[in-house]
């Protein structure tokens, strides 16, 4: 059986564990911040980078 991809996409991650992730179409966008860090306090809705596995 020859399977073909349903779609393709790209995403960019910048800034490492204190950074940002965004898909090329802009539908996925989130900030990353280690829990307890000053950045996490500034951005309470930021995602824990240890849980954001792509």
Helix count from the secondary structure assignment = 1
Average pLDDT metric:
92
Number of strands: 3
**Cα-to-Cα separation, first versus last residue:** 27 Å
The outline comes out as elongated
Binned, the helix content reads under 10%
As laid out across the biggest beta sheet, the strand order is: 1-2-3
Uncertain segments are: none
Name the features.
54 residues, 3-stranded antiparallel β-sheet, mainly beta, elongated
Set out the fold topology.
Blueprint: E1 11-14, E2 20-23, E3 29-31, H1 38-42
Antiparallel strand pairs: 1-2, 2-3
How would you characterize the overall build of this protein?
This protein is mainly beta and 54 residues long. The chain has a domain at 11-42. The chain is built from one helix and three strands. It has one helix at residues 38-42, and strands at residues 11-14, 20-23, 29-31. Strands 1-2-3 form a three-stranded antiparallel β-sheet, with no helix packed on it. The model has no long low-confidence stretch (mean pLDDT 92).
């Amino acid at each position: 059986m020859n399977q073909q991809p349903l779609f393709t996409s790209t995403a960019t991650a910048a800034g490492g564990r204190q950074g940002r992730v965004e898909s090329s179409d802009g539908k996925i966008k989130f900030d990353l911040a280690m829990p307890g860090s000053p950045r996490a306090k500034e951005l309470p809705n930021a995602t824990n980078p240890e849980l954001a596995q792509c």
